[in-house]
Amino acid sequence: MIGGIFSMFDISASGMRAERARMNVTAQNLANVNTTHDENGNVAPYCRKRIYFKPGAPTITGSNILGVSVDRIDEDTETEFIKKYEPGHPDADDDGYVSYPNVQVPLEMVDMMMASRAFQANVTCFETAKQIFSGSLQIIA
Length: 141
Hints:
Blueprint: H1 5-31, E1 49-55, E2 68-75, E3 82-85, E4 97-100, H2 105-140
Antiparallel strand pairs: 1-2, 3-4
Helix pairs in contact: 1-2
């Protein structure tokens, strides 16, 4: 058996950490749903961020197999920006269109719910491991 009883805690903790990162990325996307400028003030819509996971969490579980960790966070350059006809807007192009971020609120809300439920599932696994460990100690004592 790899790791023993404490591996259950580590695996659940790695899942909670990964899902917290997914919630942070989703929150960042939602916070920038109407951002039409970059950090330097140039007209450039915010580009939606995506998060990818990989199996294994060497820093938490000590294994490349057990647990989960964030592989990378990148920008969604495949999805087009949302163009709206607003000729009076200061960020409108010559044709009167404003480019808004490629963030779709319903999709982000679904991602947030999935991350929240996966986080809760890991909390439940952690609590179950704690009960198993506690029960084992009561049997021994």
